[in-house]
């Protein structure tokens, strides 16, 4: 009986399970220096820039209150403390997109991906494990940053009576939506890294799709540009991270836009999975 128990125990050693794959991917993610650098950029951007800019703006408002009350009234009418709180996502998205690329392309650059795929015969499990760990870490961290920034900004602007509560219209949606959008941005980076398998190529593709294409579309005739622009990844995805009024003929509603962005991300990840399943590392 002891021999049989020992045999069963030894047979379980080395068995690939989803939990072990996730632990492996967590170990890889947490051991990368680029993880801490990129996440630091995202944390500082989302958690700190909103409060910094809000403090600067409130200081300027105090001056305008004495020198130019009419200009102050105009600025107050266009100010949203909710948008100000999460405004740092514009920089955070770059750091998270690049980190998503590096999570995969770094292994291809060092050749470690071969060891990973040898250890996990069902190679798609490696990709799903990377996505699961990366998205879980990113969402938790970005949600914490968004909440911190929100409450910090509200405390800063309260002296001018433009603060908002988390239960106010759009507030919770923007805070949670910002974390979701940044998580999806990172997943897009992971997909591009797995699809292109080259750091420079994947980062270039990420920057082109997210930031260059909107500028090119803006050069088109106004009617054509207005028709295309809402469906571009950057414009569609960021709709969930703002209180701006959407839903018109030339703009997507927040959750609709986020759904479009998730469709882009799913397409890239799907292509990456197809290539991983059918070609060598």
Question: What's the helix and strand layout?
Answer:
Layout: H1 2-12, H2 18-31, H3 33-67, H4 69-78, H5 81-86, H6 89-110, H7 112-119, H8 124-157, H9 171-196, H10 199-218, H11 222-228, H12 233-238, H13 254-278
Helix pairs in contact: 2-8, 3-6, 3-8, 6-8, 6-9, 6-10, 8-9, 9-10, 9-13
Give your account of this protein's structure.
The chain is mainly α and 281 residues long. The chain has one domain. The protein is 80% helix and 0% strand. Helix 2 crosses helix 8 and helix 6 runs antiparallel to helix 8 (124-157). The two termini are 43 Å apart. The relative contact order is 0.12.
Globally, the shape reads elongated
**SS strand fraction:** under 5%
What is the share of helical residues? Answer: over 70%
Largest beta-sheet details? none
Oligomer: single chain
Number of domains: 1
Mean pLDDT: 87
Extract low-pLDDT stretches: 1-11
Separation of the first and last Cα atoms: 43 Å
| Rg for CA atoms | 23 Å
Element string (H = helix, E = strand)? HHHHHHHHHHHHH
Structural class: mainly alpha
Q: Count helical runs.
A: 13
Number of strands: 0
What can be said about this structure in brief?
This protein is 80% helix and 0% strand. With 281 residues, it is mainly alpha-helical.
């Amino acid at each position: 009986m002891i021999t049989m128990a020992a045999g069963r125990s030894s047979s379980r050693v080395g068995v690939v399970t989803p939990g072990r794959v996730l632990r492996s991917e967590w170990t890889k993610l947490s051991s990368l220096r680029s993880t801490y650098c990129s996440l630091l950029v995202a944390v500082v951007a989302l958690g700190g820039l909103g409060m910094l800019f809000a403090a600067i703006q409130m200081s300027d408002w105090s001056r305008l209150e004495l020198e130019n009350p009419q200009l102050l009234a105009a600025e107050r009418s266009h100010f949203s403390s909710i948008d100000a709180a999460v405004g740092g996502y514009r920089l955070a998205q770059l750091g998270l997109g690049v980190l998503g690329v590096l999570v995969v392309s770094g292994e291809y650059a060092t050749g470690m991906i071969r060891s990973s795929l040898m250890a996990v015969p069902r190679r798609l499990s490696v990709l799903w494990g990377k996505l699961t760990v990366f998205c879980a870490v990113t969402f938790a961290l970005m949600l914490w940053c968004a909440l911190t920034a929100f409450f910090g900004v509200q405390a800063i602007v309260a002296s001018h009576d433009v603060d908002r509560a988390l239960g106010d219209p759009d507030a919770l949606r923007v805070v949670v939506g910002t974390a979701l959008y940044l998580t999806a941005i990172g997943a897009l980076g992971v997909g591009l890294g797995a699809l292109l398998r080259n750091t420079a190529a994947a980062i270039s593709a990420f920057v082109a799709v997210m930031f260059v294409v909107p500028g090119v579309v803006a050069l088109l005739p106004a009617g054509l540009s207005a028709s295309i622009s809402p469906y571009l990844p950057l414009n569609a995805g960021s709709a969930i991270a703002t209180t701006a009024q959407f839903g018109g003929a030339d703009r997507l509603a927040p959750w609709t836009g986020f759904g479009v962005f998730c469709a882009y991300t799913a397409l890239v990840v799907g292509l990456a999975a197809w290539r991983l399943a059918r070609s060598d590392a």
